[in-house]
Design goal:
The protein is an alpha/beta fold. The protein is 32% helix and 23% strand. The protein is built from 9 helices and 10 strands. Strand 7, helix 7 and strand 8 form a beta-alpha-beta unit. Helix 3 crosses helix 4 and helix 3 packs parallel to helix 6. It is globular.
């Protein structure tokens, strides 16, 4: 078991980055609307990537194709070279791809730590979760992974609080912690910063940074400014197509991004 990183851990050892998830010439239509139009996209091992675009750009549809919520009308989805085009979301979880809302939603009438216990034992295939929770909770509190999750995701003070009493930022951190406890190779986040205050955004990104280089992270956001200091690679979509892909700064300087995303005239240089 790899274990959660702690603040004292050093940076990961650099290694070659193979492609771990690939979408090859994928298209998705909804009636006459072509939401994703012949897109080829790849995620690499342990990179932190972002996809942005205006409303209707196709970013969420592409995200749903990668995670198995929509089947493509055309094209192929691969995970480590294996064709998963028709694989269910649950099968993708088993392979190592985790989307935060693929988990059952948090249990608002349970405490923070109880939610983490359930997530941990569900991920590791322990049976009878609810009955086990009632009889052995104190022992589970000592599980190293759960203890680390409380620390890394800054939830110690909310440990015994009912989830329905958490702030939105705390609840978002809890949802991500529950996903991380499953030890996915690929963590997929669909607008995890939506509705958060500036301080909550800073907190959520802070805990996610601790996983940089330890697993592949894909974050889809509407506002590019929110992930400026987080992603190492940025992809911009417009009208169902990828119009730019590369480093954050170079992507935002792309003339087509200026025209389509920023809706301003391109300037030379």
């Amino acid at each position: 078991m790899r274990g959660l990183p702690t603040p004292e851990d050093g940076p990961p050892t650099p290694r070659a980055r193979a492609e771990i998830v690939q979408a090859v010439h994928v298209t998705k239509r909804f009636g006459e609307l072509v939401a994703v139009d012949g897109v080829t996209y790849a995620l690499r091992e342990d990179e932190v990537a972002g996809i942005v675009g205006s409303n209707g750009a196709g970013k969420t549809t592409l995200f749903n194709l990668l995670t198995g919520y929509y089947p493509p009308d055309e094209g192929t989805i691969l995970y480590r070279g294996q064709d998963i085009t028709r694989a269910s979301p649950q099968k993708r979880i088993e392979l190592g791809m985790m989307r935060t809302f693929q988990l059952a939603s948090t249990f608002d009438n349970l405490t923070t730590i109880d939610n983490l216990v359930l997530a941990f034992f569900r991920a590791h295939r322990r049976p009878s979760l609810l009955s086990m929770l009632a009889t052995t909770r104190s022992r589970h509190r000592q599980e190293e992974q759960i203890t680390q999750a409380l620390e890394v995701f800054e939830l110690q003070d909310a440990c015994d609080r009912l989830v329905r009493h958490l702030s939105l930022g705390e609840k978002r951190r809890l949802e991500i912690a529950m996903a991380v406890l499953a030890e996915p190779r690929v963590l997929l986040l669909d607008e995890p910063l939506a509705g958060l205050s500036e301080s909550e955004i800073k907190s959520v990104l802070g805990v996610l940074r601790r996983h940089s280089g330890r697993q592949t992270i894909l974050i889809v956001e509407h506002k590019v400014s929110q992930i400026a200091d987080f992603v190492e690679r940025l992809t911009v979509m417009h009208e169902g197509k990828i119009i730019a892909d590369g480093g954050y700064a170079e992507t935002l300087r792309d003339p087509e991004v200026r025209r389509s995303y920023w809706q301003i005239g391109a300037s030379p240089g």
